[in-house]
């Protein structure tokens, strides 16, 4: 049972501003002010020094259920999300069976409700079985109890230009969006890592930047032609940022996300041949990282999305080429963004809230999330300590898997509490 | 030196020590009793995930001439084909007390991964399209014994550089040893960042040959044609194959090398392959001495 008592957040700094008290009651932000009195039965949280942000919203999460419950379940993944300060996540469609019918998306949605740690918004597959041949029943998923608005074949690119056009057109009927995994398949056959100096030296087949950029350019033009919304998943190259900036300037309704790992890590880490650094799209160069940070700062890239991709140990304890692609990211996202963007002076906390809560909620058409911290708004709040350095340890994480690329690194802060409609899912840094 | 994973790990002094040690050990091969007691009681495992009778036999012979116990563990007919992971295989070999593991694997980096899982020495006998350090060492050894030096030697490596572990190891080692390397291939068979490598690059074999002391021909798999790396075997052969006329345009004492197995009629004509200036069989013979030297230096210490 969720703890529905009122909570008084004493001395908290909303969006990193001046300290105030915030009272959460009846699922809402009940009061904001100095020295608020705590009604009877209120739990008082000493939030001195902590930053309050609206609960984070992830547009890109792999919860693995149904099918790969050995890596993650809806419950374990949504607990991990809560630990990271998230109150809503979008569960990607590449499960087994694929989330390409109303039945599967409703199952995932229901599992999320039962778990109760955050709102789980299923993403529907664009094509049946992610096979890229024909559209899945997008309308049925949109009309289902799960109210799907984001559609993606993530993991696989909708590479057929005509099919992509149709998908973009079709979702206009219910204000949906196609989230594209931009990867030209022929240019990336057998690809193992970013194509460049490091791949050439290591003898690993390269994943060239152009394979991402060419698809993004095509899709922006298509989206503008048919007047639909396009969302670009996990942008990873400087060229992609340039193309999206150009597309936005000419009026294309495109949004884009970047992952925390692409904001911090570079492809030279692959020198170790440790598949914990294997991810798709791959880690790129320092120059790409710089461009991604600039793009996120100037709004070319709209949001940070985790691409949380849990894998069992045996999928990573192997030689590079047979290892699975992907990294867990929910529990480290905010701290990585602080390190890459806030501590470098590129973003304020207010802008972090925009890029990790308000804008992703708007793109996913998620109601009740990404709202301002104001009286009468849903009490979806995260309390973050930006001055609590923590050594990352995959084994100590709440997610069922441990494949973090940040293991052994020290990140600058940690989530202290997360509230979902007023009920704490995390308190004193511990899952409730 | 605990492992030999990359030719780039060797300093100039270490590389010269390997070559000098190989020269001494080569004398054993000339005796009627071709055996030294140096590695008696030590166990060397040949862990071969790729078929390579040539390399495996070379390592086996090298270890046996040093009196090591040799176990051949091939991917076929072992637990490997039943789906056992490289890590579990590594732990098994570890439990059996392997002092050295010689690994050949189709995945780049497999030797690096193995080195993190076992206590013994790991010797990279070819990992994917990454490296093949003992091949580069035996090539350098062969050049030095034929031409008397490595410093300042002009070496052209010709063929499928992109997919060649031999080319990668040779560029690293020959540069360390002071030779000048030129890579020659059609642009499709060169890595995109090759201009950052410590060597020259040319698309024109005929322009390179007259100023070349050693030309090293790499095997080109005909299958590459189907991926459009080149239009046809004939066109490849015309541009980049070694034949008698081209050999005649090289300096008089220049040699032709090939790591084997050769595809006659593709990258090398029978006339060149059988000429006394071609060192293919010499390379094979030198391979045993060179691998003895590496095993001795890795495992011979107390």
UniProtKB/TrEMBL annotation, chain A:
UniProt gene name: pyrC
Keyword annotations: Hydrolase, Metal-binding, Pyrimidine biosynthesis, Zinc
Xref: Pfam families: DHOase
Acetylation is among the record's keywords: no
Residues annotated as binding substrate: 62-64, 94, 280, 311
HAMAP family tied to this protein: PyrC_classI_B
NCBIfam families, per the entry: PRK09357.1-1, pyrC_multi
Residues bound to Zn(2+) 2: 154, 181, 234
SUPFAM superfamilies: Composite domain of metallo-dependent hydrolases, Metallo-dependent hydrolases
InterPro entries on file: DHOase, DHOase/Allantoinase_Hydrolase, DHOase_cat, Dihydroorotase_CS, Metal-dep_hydrolase_composite, Metal_Hydrolase
Biological processes annotated in GO: 'de novo' UMP biosynthetic process; purine nucleobase catabolic process
Task of the protein: Catalyzes the reversible cyclization of carbamoyl aspartate to dihydroorotate.
Signal peptide bounds: none
Active site: 307
GO cellular component terms given for this protein: cytoplasm
Binding site for Zn(2+) 1: 60, 62, 154, 307
PANTHER family associated with the record: ALLANTOINASE
Gene3D superfamilies: Metal-dependent hydrolases, Urease, subunit C, domain 1
Name this protein carries in UniProt: Dihydroorotase
Organism, as annotated: Nocardiopsis algeriensis
Cofactor(s) required, per the database record: Zn(2+)
Record-annotated Dihydroorotase catalytic domain positions: 51-238
Entry note: cofactor: Binds 2 Zn(2+) ions per subunit.
Pathway: Pyrimidine metabolism; UMP biosynthesis via de novo pathway; (S)-dihydroorotate from bicarbonate: step 3/3
UniProt family annotation: Belongs to the metallo-dependent hydrolases superfamily. DHOase family. Class I DHOase subfamily.
From TrEMBL, chain B:
GO molecular function, one term: aspartate carbamoyltransferase activity
Reaction(s) the record says it catalyses: carbamoyl phosphate + L-aspartate = N-carbamoyl-L-aspartate + phosphate + H(+)
PROSITE patterns, A to Z: CARBAMOYLTRANSFERASE
Keyword entries, A-Z: Pyrimidine biosynthesis, Transferase
One Gene Ontology cellular component: cytosol
Domain of life the protein comes from: Bacteria
Transferase in keyword set: yes
EC identifiers of the protein: 2.1.3.2
Cited HAMAP family: Asp_carb_tr
PANTHER family: ASPARTATE CARBAMOYLTRANSFERASE, ORNITHINE CARBAMOYLTRANSFERASE, MITOCHONDRIAL
Family to which this protein belongs: Belongs to the aspartate/ornithine carbamoyltransferase superfamily. ATCase family.
Subunit organization: Heterododecamer (2C3:3R2) of six catalytic PyrB chains organized as two trimers (C3), and six regulatory PyrI chains organized as three dimers (R2).
Protein name: Aspartate carbamoyltransferase
Underlying gene: pyrB
